[in-house]
Amino acid sequence: MQLFTVDRALVERYLQSDVLSGAEVAALLEHRGISDGTPIYLDDETLLPVEPLNSWATSLSYADLDASTMRDYGRIIARLDRHQSGRGADLLSATESDLVAYKRLRTRHQRRPIETAAWSKESGLIDRFYGFLVDNRHLDRRPVRVAARGRNALSPRLRLRLDIRHMTFEQYRYFRDVGLGGQLPDAQVNRSFRGSAPHRGRAGADLALGTGSRWREWATVLLPELGIGPGAARSAAEFTVQACAKYGKVRTIYVPEDALDSVDTYCLLERPELARAAARTLARKHRDLFVVKAIDYADGRVRGTLQGVEREYAISAMPAHLRRITVHEGEFGLEALAVFICRGGLMPGADSWKRYRHAAWRRMVGLADETTPHLPAKRWRWHDLRHTYALQLLPYLENLMDGEEPDHARRQRRHRSYLTGHIRYNPLLIVSRRLGHSSPETTYAYLEYTDDLIHGFEEAFRNWLGDGEATYAQIAAHALGVGANGGGTP
């Protein structure tokens, strides 16, 4: 069986047929509600659609799932089909022993077994797939029996918990300035640095930490959302995120001034060169891009042309794939509207940001010496900046609320307006809202880590973001009680 995915733009551009034109096929897919990314399963020999797999794939499209999610789901079921073919069977004839053998292959016996979180996603999808087959009468029952407490043979052996990792001040500055920023531990320029756009990495880290947002939220941010660009009147940046938020849950993200200054530095020193180099390439691709002609900063809307049709979008409702192809007429010609761009002129994807992070970790390890902070066994993730945000903000808000008052006065002040005060001023609920958690119960997991922090701050992120006056060398020297140049006195 062969796996393909729907891509209307490719169909419209390259399909040549005497029966239907590419434009007609694209219009038919739109009419039927088939989204890009929808899996298509074809028989190896006849190249005819394989049922009921394509019906299941269509149900994913009707559920309005993200294109990347549908592609992942399609690969999972195709992988299971290959396993079944190797056992002389197919998906519809799968037995409990077949699926248990598949689980053991994926989690134990293959060259690189997957971890519990990955198998949890995969097993959940397989269970839903067979649920679809039963609901639509392709099977009489699921191949796996449900055991006690709703568990079955496909359930992960280990129970998942939040993997919360956070950075100390020194660890963050080492990650940002040395790993991403191309500096040496003594704050000098690292002339062996072979990365590109160090200010982009530093700005991304500051934006991630300063907002506590998820990778998809800060890495896809557009210039108008930060109040950057012609016609913008920026004081403090605050914007609404929804389409790029987890589960599409709308919330407001506040960007502190120091994080904005870091982004401004990148936009002044590095971004113009990247935009200039890619202008001709984007001009050739303009028919495949969303070319913005007008930006309404007050209402947060953009208007332009996409595939020859005039379109208008609320910026918060623009998904990541649309943001990636959004451009406007800039100083050098067509220029991406995204804050962060790569050599091709468009927004870096997940693989690019992963590559930046891995390269940063290799530099951090390679330059580590007695002045550097402790490096964990596992390399830092972008999501660890979100955890750090929460674990700095939560104690800070608690200390701010407690103040210097005695316990009795503090309790009176906390409960003066019992319900409204609890909802509005409870530090845990504030952090939960800022993180966009669906339930405060998710935020509770951070509580066990709040006593683990080494540094107390007068302000939550003072001196973390932006350049400030302190270099990493001064920070490291202060931690060791030596001078910045290695001497015994400051």
Hey, roughly how much beta strand do the residues contain? 5-15%
Distance between the termini: 69 Å
Give the neighbour order of strands across the main sheet. Answer: 7-6-5-8-9
Instruction: Give the overall shape, derived from the CA principal axes.
Output: globular
Q: What is the helix fraction of residues, given as a range?
A: 40-55%
The biggest beta sheet reads: 5 strands, mixed
Number of helices: 19
Number of strands: 9
Uncertain residue ranges: 452-458, 484-490
Class of secondary structure makeup:
alpha+beta
Mean pLDDT over the residues: 85
Computed CA radius of gyration, to the nearest angstrom: 26 Å
Series of secondary-structure elements, N-terminal to C-terminal:
EHHEHHHHHHHEEHHEEEHEEHHHHHHH
What would you note in describing this structure?
This protein is an alpha+beta fold. It has three domains: 2-150, no CATH class; 161-191 and 367-490, no CATH class; 220-347, no CATH class. Helix content is 45%, strand content 9%. The protein has a five-stranded mixed β-sheet. The chain has a two-stranded antiparallel ribbon with strand order 1-2. A hairpin with a 2-residue loop joins strand 6 (301-306) and strand 7. Helix 8 (198-211) runs antiparallel to helix 10 (257-269). The N and C termini lie far apart (69 Å).
